Amino acid sequence: MNDEESFEEVAARLDDLQGVPIGTLFDLVTREGACMSIDVGAEEPTWTSDRAPDRELAANICAACPVVDECLELEFRTAGFTTLGVWGALAEDDRRAAYLAWLQRRGGGESR
Ligand code: SF4
């Protein structure tokens, strides 16, 4: 999501993936996702209450990911509003807003 893109535009981008089975999305994301091959080292991350690092992390790791849309579509179908962490280049508060726009486009989630 770039600075000019609205949550509605993010949701609209996913329309073409509506008919793709969840298993196919899962295979694509786990095989092609940029975060799937990152070496994070042996130390656990330091958790903070600051939300800014989430957005920064999403921007950095997801920027070059070839399956951003597939990742978002999968997250919306499987986690929906109860989403946590960084997926599909969006931190959780942004993703919740995009999820609501996505739900509206899908008739309230009937196609899940
Ligand atoms: S969009 Fe981000 S979280 Fe999703 S697979 Fe790609 S790198 Fe991972």
Give the arrangement of secondary structure elements.
Layout: H1 7-13, H2 22-32, H3 52-62, H4 68-78, H5 92-105
Helix pairs in contact: 1-5, 2-4
The structure holds iron/sulfur cluster.
Iron/sulfur cluster binds near residues 67 and 89.
Q: What about the largest sheet? A: none
| Overall geometric form | globular
Straight-line N-to-C gap = 23 Å
**Ligands bound, unique:** iron/sulfur cluster
Treating each run of at least 4 consecutive H or I residues as one helix, how many helices? 5
Low-confidence stretches: none
Mean pLDDT: 84
Description:
The chain is mostly helical. The chain is built from five helices and no strands. The protein has helices at 7-13, 22-32, 52-62, 68-78, 92-105. Helix 1 (7-13) crosses helix 5 (92-105) and helix 2 (22-32) packs across helix 4 (68-78). The longest helix is centred in the last third of the chain and has 14 residues, at 92-105. The chain is globular and about 45 Å long. Iron/sulfur cluster binds at residues 29, 33-35, 61-62, 65, 67-68, 71, 87-89. Iron/sulfur cluster (SF4) is lined by residues 29, 33-35, 61-62, 65, 67-68, 71, 87-89.
